[in-house]
Structures are given as structure tokens and as C-alpha cells.
Design goal:
With 180 residues, the chain is α+β, with helices and mostly antiparallel strands. The protein has five helices and six strands; from the N terminus they run ααααβαβββββ. The protein has helices at residues 3-21, 23-43, 46-81, 86-100, 117-120, and strands at 106-109, 126-129, 133-139, 145-151, 158-165, 173-179.
Length: 180
């Protein structure tokens, strides 16, 4: 009878996630736990119950981790695209290029006081300045997302502020352009 304890723990974790992360994740975890409980006692013979519980206890946390990651990425994406201060961000990037653009490559932490206040307000993970580009990274790791201030490919006197993400099939989204 120790396997039902695992299911009860899964229900408890679902309730905690329901309180912390919102309705979808917690509700799904609770439903998965109850489905595993029903399958444990009704649908599967005794020799398959243990493997079902092991698969359920491993697969459910992985699924909820992935759901949580996607929700966080969507939140970051929406926050970057829906901003209303692109002009100020572009001016801050031009200021960084004037100060540090002649150097090979300069990297800043998100709390560095050398960054303009408007760029710090984005809450980037990191900011890097090259000879003709400023990269404001919001996320990192295996999935990069952020703002890129770069020289236009069609006109060398124009700089573009674009939203960029590492996603299959995604293209850069032009947010603002400014003459140098």
C-alpha cells in the first residue's frame, strides 16, 4: 500500500502548484494523479501497476516543468514586445555605442550602473556592446530571447531595434529604427 502514498504526494504537489503557479498546472497535476490512482486500482493488473506509477511519477514533473518554462518564455516575450519605450531604449543603446562601441566587445551585468536606466528597466540577464550592435538578453541558456540594436543591412546610417529569439521559424521583429 505504499504506492498510493506516492499518488497522495503528487496530489499535494498539485495543490501547491495550483496555489503558486495558477490554475492550469495544478489542476492538470491533480487530474494526472487521480487518473494514475484510478488506473492503479481498476484498469491494470497487479504486475503493471508499479511501472505505471513509476512512469507517472517521472513523466508528470517533466511535463509540468516544460509547461512552466513555456509560460515564463511567453511572459518574457510579451513583456518585451508590448513595451512602449522603444525610443528611449534606442537612445540608451546609441549612448552605449558612443561610449563603448569602439572597443572589441564589452559585457555588462544587469545591475551595472554604467548602463542607462531605461536599459536596466528591461531587467536583462546580460547586455553586451560590440562595434555596431548592442545585445540586451532577457533569457539565456538553451533559449535566447532579447532585444538587438544593430546597424541596418540596407542603410549604414540607420540603426534598428529588433526583438530576436531562438525559435524555429521565428524572424526578427522590427520594433523601432533611428538615424545615427
Amino acid at each position: 500500500m505504499r504506492h498510493p502514498k506516492i499518488i497522495l504526494i503528487q496530489v499535494f504537489v498539485g495543490i501547491v502548484l495550483l496555489c503558486i503557479m495558477g490554475i492550469p498546472v495544478g489542476v492538470v497535476l491533480i487530474l494526472v494523479a487521480f487518473a494514475a490512482f484510478a488506473a492503479y486500482y481498476i484498469a491494470f493488473p497487479l504486475y503493471r501497476r508499479r511501472s505505471l506509477l513509476i512512469v507517472g511519477c517521472v513523466a508528470a514533473p517533466i511535463a509540468f516543468y516544460l509547461i512552466g518554462v513555456e509560460r515564463a518564455l511567453t511572459r518574457h516575450r510579451t513583456a518585451l514586445i508590448k513595451r512602449d519605450d522603444y525610443v528611449a531604449i534606442a537612445q540608451g543603446c546609441l549612448e552605449l555605442l558612443r561610449k563603448h562601441g569602439s572597443e572589441e566587445f564589452v559585457s555588462f551585468s544587469s545591475t551595472d550602473t554604467n548602463l542607462p536606466l531605461v536599459i536596466r528597466s528591461v531587467r536583462p540577464m546580460s547586455v553586451s556592446v560590440g562595434s555596431n550592435r548592442v545585445t540586451i538578453m532577457k533569457t539565456g541558456g538553451h533559449y535566447h530571447m532579447g532585444l538587438l540594436f544593430r546597424q541596418s543591412t540596407t542603410n549604414s546610417n540607420v540603426f534598428e531595434l529588433v526583438f530576436q529569439e531562438e525559435k524555429k521559424g521565428s524572424r526578427d521583429l522590427l520594433l523601432y529604427s533611428v538615424a545615427r
